[in-house]
């Protein structure tokens, strides 16, 4: 929260001319800024953007966990062997690890011809990921059956959610 207040103070100082600033008890605010509704609107939009960005990642992981719970019984019918990233790789290569998991799950959905709309959440989540450089390719991870794969994926998501 302190970061947001600092950003607001800097923005207010930048939007005011030096001779129009009035010293307030905690921050400097200019007379024009108090009356300028556009400035207030943009500052409000900026604050909401920051708040949305901060909470979005956690809610997406929670949504993905719910999605996996809904698809669990359908996915477990597959006998596929899937590349499974270890839990410790997630700290340095979060997006790449998640991308590997999503690609593998999407492959299972295609091969098993799962036409459930519940699977769209996997495709959507996959589209939001931008893999980091210097991370191992998905094919470098060990092959696991679908049950082990889903168990490790769930543990990985829970770890990310708790960070």
TrEMBL record:
<dbReference type="GO" id="GO:0005125">
    <property type="term" value="F:cytokine activity"/>
</dbReference>
<dbReference type="GO" id="GO:0042119">
    <property type="term" value="P:neutrophil activation"/>
</dbReference>
<dbReference type="GO" id="GO:0005126">
    <property type="term" value="F:cytokine receptor binding"/>
</dbReference>
<dbReference type="GO" id="GO:0042102">
    <property type="term" value="P:positive regulation of T cell proliferation"/>
</dbReference>
<dbReference type="InterPro" id="IPR020439">
    <property type="entry name" value="IL-15"/>
</dbReference>
<dbReference type="GO" id="GO:0005615">
    <property type="term" value="C:extracellular space"/>
</dbReference>
<dbReference type="Pfam" id="PF02372">
    <property type="entry name" value="IL15"/>
</dbReference>
<dbReference type="GO" id="GO:0001819">
    <property type="term" value="P:positive regulation of cytokine production"/>
</dbReference>
<keyword id="KW-0732">Signal</keyword>
<dbReference type="InterPro" id="IPR003443">
    <property type="entry name" value="IL-15/IL-21_fam"/>
</dbReference>
<comment type="similarity">
    <text>Belongs to the IL-15/IL-21 family.</text>
</comment>
<keyword id="KW-1015">Disulfide bond</keyword>
<protein>
    <recommendedName>
        <fullName>Interleukin</fullName>
    </recommendedName>
</protein>
<keyword id="KW-0202">Cytokine</keyword>
<dbReference type="GO" id="GO:0050778">
    <property type="term" value="P:positive regulation of immune response"/>
</dbReference>
<dbReference type="InterPro" id="IPR009079">
    <property type="entry name" value="4_helix_cytokine-like_core"/>
</dbReference>
<dbReference type="GO" id="GO:0006955">
    <property type="term" value="P:immune response"/>
</dbReference>
<keyword id="KW-0964">Secreted</keyword>
């Amino acid at each position: 929260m302190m970061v947001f207040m600092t950003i607001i103070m800097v923005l207010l100082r930048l939007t005011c001319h030096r001779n129009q600033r009035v010293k307030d008890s905690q921050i400097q605010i200019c007379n024009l800024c108090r009356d300028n509704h556009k400035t207030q609107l943009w500052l409000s939009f900026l604050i909401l953007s920051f708040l949305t960005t901060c909470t979005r990642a956690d809610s997406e992981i929670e949504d993905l966990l719910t999605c996996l719970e809904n698809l669990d019984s359908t996915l477990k019918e597959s006998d596929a062997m899937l590349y499974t990233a270890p839990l410790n790789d997630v700290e340095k290569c979060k997006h790449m690890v998640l991308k590997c998991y999503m690609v593998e799950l999407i492959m299972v959905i295609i091969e098993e011809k799962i036409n459930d709309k519940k699977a769209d959440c996997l495709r959507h989540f996959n589209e939001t990921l931008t893999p980091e450089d210097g991370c191992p390719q998905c094919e470098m991870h060990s092959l696991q059956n679908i049950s082990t794969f889903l168990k490790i994926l769930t543990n990985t998501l829970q770890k990310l959610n708790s960070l």
